[in-house]
Amino acid sequence: ILINFTKIAKCISTFRAPHAWDKRIIVKKNRLISTYNSAMYPTQIYSCDTIGILSPASPQRDEKRLYAGIQYLENQGFSVQLGEYALARYAGYLAGTDAERASDIMTMFTNPDIKAIVCARGGYGTPRLLSLLDYEVIAANPKIFVGFSDTTALQ
Description:
alpha/beta; 6 strands; 27% helix; 19% strand
């Protein structure tokens, strides 16, 4: 499954999250940390903003297509930051170790310059990261997050 960057760029350029979660539950290491009610809205992004691209599961198999998508986003005026481990190879099918891929996610969420995060592809491996993420930090830095397949575990 490959991303259609043209459709994503069109959606991202005008996106304002219409959905608000009534209740957020923070679980860390299988223990309930807190619950709170809040609406979470990422900020709208504009063509001059930065989009982070990462691989929370497998790396993009066809790097030419990935770079063509990046070029398209840059031609639309976006800056693109590729995750440190987005193209890494580990255990034959993952884009880095679980810790490395989780680090890429947290780096994207904590970087104030990155306004949206796009997963280069879906695939097995993303649910393995859930216990490694800091959900309080993510909640404090809401961003547009685009993914499919197993990456929906992160949404």
